[in-house]
Amino acid sequence: MNINIKSIMATGERVTLECKKAQNSVPISLWDTYSAFANTYGGTILLGVVEHTDEKDKSKRFEIVGVEDADKIRKDLWNIINSKEKVNVNLLRDEDVQVVDVEGKSVVAVNVPRAESSTRPIYINNNLSRGTFKRNHEGDYHCTEQELKMMLRDANEAGNDRMILEYYTMDDIDIPTLESYRIMFKTDNPDHVWNDLDHKDFLMQLGGYAIDRKERIEGLTMAGLLMFGKGLPIRDRFDNLRMDYIDKSHLIGEQRYSDRLTYDGRWENNLYNFVRMVLPKLTIDLPRPFRMEGVIRKDDTLQHKAVREAVTNMIIHADLMLNGILRIEKNDDRIVLTNPGLLKLPIEQIYQGGESKARNQRMQNMFRMIGYGENLGSGFPLILNAWNEKHWIRPELVEQPELMQVKLTLYFENDPVNDPINDPINDPIKLTDRQKMILQMFDEDKTLSRERLCEKTGLSDATIKREIAYLRRVGKLMRIGSKKTGYWSVNNNGK
Question: Is the pTM of this model over 0.85?
Fold first, then answer.
């Protein structure tokens, strides 16, 4: 862990930084922060640094006091964190705890990684309800009951949608919906043995109906009801969830929207119907080049596949137990998709691809069996490649913890800098010295504000905004989380 303590302190404590005096011992409050960092984005704890919150002069706000016996503090920290009485899981490696010399004084730097979703929640004092913390700009806070339940659900590697819904039976399935799906299934899998099964056995094979022999219960699973159920039983069981599509493109005069799909009694509002009805609306304006493969017309472009992937991802990664909306908004220059729940993987890892952790694994399989959804971990890179092919502005994935939701924006705007840059066969990105300086500053301090960046560089706000926008478009800079509580991530690949 290489850390520039002076640079980090320049902008004060943020979501990923905490300073504590700790001259003689490990402070008790460190463990609240350990839990909070592990359950949020990770972060760094500096022992031997004092923040004077009332100091207006930022250069004097932080004081390096050092610790008296760094070796003792390191030893005590390791002894405590390895005790199950204090922390349920130790995430630290040897290199995560370092002693750094600053102005001749010893500062202990503790790097706390973000815990995997299967490991969260990280809690202290053997108290799950009161010992679980998360982090925002105000500091460490006790997790709400809803946040705790969400982390516990996410820790289940089998996914959320396998749950048997007691008392929900095949009578709650909308047969026309299921038959429509089976037609698509048979088209994609003409020789599959499941084609000969009755509806109930077919659903059992898909994970839409299940039998728990131990508990002696059977019924529709969460996946089965939400995908193929009648609207009324769905609303009865999942009154927390809404599906909403709104088209704000091609508006005329005072029109608020040109098309709307929400529940109005004219369709069975299950997830399969929602996707089936929305996708043609989203892709109608995408160009379809005419080509033939034998006698079959093929007009499915990479961009059409990407939009399908985005809609599918919205559903399979949503936490459908939360209060929220599966919302799709179409504009002239973009599509915005929003789903309840937070990300199970860091955003940087999602952009890179290679791993997938769907909350709703049975729904994921249902979609994949009809050609919706790529192989594990390849979905988001497919979206990026499709947009790069058209030289459109890079899709933006944002986690919004304060709203307990994730938002994906697909821009249709042409990006003048995207053409020569994002094509992997072209030369590496050439950055100006100013752009390199800005990236370095964000790399040293992930929570650096635009205002503070203006102060440090002497550049105008307009110039900084323009440079940040450029660096984001070319994939060198990414915003993790919301404007208020998030931080910056620098992509150093290829530099």
Answer: no
